[in-house]
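quick one, two chains, predict together pls
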Amino acid sequence: MRNRLVAIKYFYRECTIYHLIFTTLSLNIFLDDNPSIYAYIFWTKVIGYAFTFGIYQMSRHRYFYFFYNLHVGKTFMLMSSIVLDVILMILLMLIIQLIVN
Amino acid sequence: MNLLEVDGVDLSFGNRKILSHVYLSCETGEVIGLIGRNGSGKSSLLKVIFGTLTGAHQSVRLNRQYVKKLHQVSQSINFVTQEGVLMSYLTLDDLIKIFHLRKYEAELLAIDEIKRERFTRLGALSGGTRKLIEITVHLYADTMFTLLDEPFSYLSPVLVETLLPIIQQRSRVKGIILTDHQYQTVWSVSSRRLVLYDGIVQEVKEQEELEQYGYLSF
């Protein structure tokens, strides 16, 4: 369990910059007055995840072994990173909504 | 005593056959030295054992139990690839926490090259010191087996001399499989030497045998 938490922490850190870019884009969409904002946000984040993990797979592939050495699989890392990012995104959207209203 | 066995490994890249019916075993207390020419499949074999590369046929067994991806089995194995596996922003102090090495802290910090860099980011270290730290940390990590791909490349002779006793000491509690082109160093540290030739693993007893497998020309 501890290894998994360590893996989540470091993998999220590895992806932070890319997640932040796409979260900022999504929050920008969220502020728009458009009936389809949730669909736009959804697809922006999906593209963001594909981009993030694609870039990581291409440029930092060797660091997957750091996580494997903690006995944590790739699927678990990718999924936990997405779950964390979605939670953060929802929190930010709630905070923005509170501020705007 | 733990036993790792890989059996019937067949691996091809396109039309090129890399590994053919390979069998290899390693148990606690052994240092297996894997020798072979460039492109002979040494790194691929280590990846097959670790579980990040899958051959057409293969059987990996840990203590006689079949395992699909060995690296996903807790405390089973770790692997230091030739490129290194640790992120540049980590320090030795971080690694001690991450890999639960508090109980070995005194032993680790008894190594001068390591002690003085305890709080330095790996990215700020020389290639050799960084590699020494990566390998030492993984050797001390609590796993039954450690795979080392080219552990001696980029290491100066003095760092190799620092690393060899660590490998020998840690082999008392774990099995180690390593491969490197510094074959004399591999020879000196290994308890069993295997040569990978034409996709097949053969045990060698004398260095002269390396010639018949095309690894050396005396």
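The first strand of chain B starts at residue 3 and ends at 13.
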